[in-house]
Amino acid sequence: MTEQSRIDIRNVTKLYGAVKAVNNVDLTIEGGAYCCMIGPSGCGKTTLLRMIAGHEAPSSGTISIGGQDVTHARTGSRGTALMFQNYALFPHLSLTDNVAFSLRVKGEAADTRRARAREMLDRVQLGHLADRLPSELSGGQQQRVALARALITNPRVLLLDEPLSALDEFLRLKMRVELKRLQNELGITFIHVTHTQPEAIALADQVVVMDHGLIEQAASPRDIYNRPHSPYVARFMGGQNVLTATVESVDAQGGAVVIDQNGTRHDLGNAGGVTSGQQVRFSIRRDHIHVAAAPASRNGLSGKVVNIEYQGTFVKVALDTGLREEFIIYMSEDSFFARPLEVGRTIHAAWDASLNHFLRGANNSTGTPHED
Question: Are residues 54 and 104 in the same domain?
Fold first, then answer.
């Protein structure tokens, strides 16, 4: 099944007049993977999903599934199923008949299609509600019906367009588990469009971060979070502070000393290829920063506390350091409440030089993440 559900997207562009909704995208999604496409509204992720499904045609480029070119194939012949954001259930049909609808269109006998529909409802743990109408269900239950209806066609690839966006936080977390469980059981490729960073990190084997029709980075969740390619990815995925600095010196091993806009020096051990005087950007994870007793001469910043938010497992502390962006520290609950901070107080942030991550990508758009 894995080879049959591998997706190869080559040089795909989608034009709407002069606007490039998707711009020369190259991407491979391995068969049996859970892939999450993420980015701000208008970044091209849903357009790319619809082209894989066959609801949109590329202006140029090719899309293959399982080695078969499906660029211009009919929607029903490419082995994909698309689960819409609004579920699109038929209000006058029972759950069984909703799930069996595509089999009815294909002319399958009533007894056979209803038996298969009930089996699929059992798979999503709704068999006991098979005779109910959609209006009698909760949002999470309706989502599972829509999922069963998509899966009954035995697709090679299941496409999900923001499937959890209409659910409350409790149901979103519950359905995340259900989606991953089903994908593991079925072994087919899932492609899931979302705008929520924790959702992508929790579910995906591969995260594809998009902006303005381009793929900024495609990698594992851990690589995306710990080793973002560009300032855009670091900012959009959250959990990182991005600093701008000028290279002061470079050593023979590729390490560099850089000076930020406040005049503080920082060490970049992985900055091979930079030259003195060059402007660079680097990131530091917010949870790798600690509060020091005195200003750090290197690899640190001082600033005034401007906001404090208790997040349960950590406390988010925002500093005004005189730079364009607030500098954020994620303090452990224990360390914060052992010595609580107050808004208006000046504190000193510091971190280990080995944790600085040099950002090679050029994109420096803001990409403000949703702070979930």
Answer: yes
